Amino acid sequence: MAGRRTNLALLALTLIAAATGVLAFGVGGPWVRWTIVAHGAAALGIVALVPWKTGIASRGIRRHRYRSAPSILLAAALTVVTITGLGHATGVLVWLGPVSAMQLHVGSAIAIVVLLGWHVIARPTRPRRTDLTRRNLLRAGVVAGGAAAAYGTLEVATHVLRLPGAARRATGSYVRCSLDPAVMPVTQWLNDQVQVTDPAGWRLSIEDASGRRSVAYEELDADRDRIRAVLDCTGGWWADQEWEGVLLARLLSGLETASSIEVTSLTGYARRLPSGDAGRLLLATRVGDAPLSAGHGFPARLVAAGRRGFWWVKWVDRIALSEVPWWWQAPFPTA
Fold this sequence. Notes:
The protein is an alpha+beta fold. The protein has helices at 3-26, 32-48, 50-63, 69-90, 101-122, 134-160, 217-222, 248-251, and strands at residues 95-96, 99-100, 174-175, 203-208, 211-216, 225-232, 237-247, 260-265, 270-274, 281-287, 290-291, 301-304, 316-322. β1 (95-96) and β2 form a beta hairpin.
């Protein structure tokens, strides 16, 4: 395969892998499985093109020896993202000490996007009309079909060999400590820190159609709803737990006139959710018949069944109805 067409194919596959990776990272519904399939097939397509790209890169390094450091870093990041992706998918490499293979996979993928942006600017490969010939489209179809077949083969082998990956959830996550919250991992988003709060001085601020009011911990914890929900962390694990607290539909008035519900943490971390979901959103004060621990969000955390872990705001101290649509926010929190 010619060098220019190889580069264009790699660029297209990398963009597909990045887009499906972001979507899979943020979606918790059952249809995410097809996103994971597309992501895995695109990744294996990239792996299939490595032999051609290796020759291109070797020639480029010989010609531009002193300007090749970013390209070498890009190759290193691609190696890490491939190893961690395959390790996580099969279950043979899920944790590396205190971090998960998924965390390394995502971190190296972000590095690839940055380095690829530099590569495209520094060494642009522009598409041409002649790239859309029947022969080239057939080649692209062969690469896509081969990548899909490779993904299917990997999935079958994982099940036949009874590797741990056969038991992973549709999102790709592995079960950890279901119905045992005492040993459930403690994770938080980016630079959030675990908050240690005195319940005697804590107050939940509520802003709804009836105005602004504050609720003490004892009042919030006194009248409990109970739901069973899966916390599916973007770090690559999930846990099914029994949660107790108050459904937002009972806590808030005027939901029918609001567009969204904004839930804010003591740390300033916030997410906005559809007001129509209030009957399924729980402000939890307990898990597994015991009060939440500090690491799991004491004194109160949001339980958002069907959504990935970064929607489950911890250390909640403010809930407010809003006219702003729930989707009018960054897809992922920036802090």
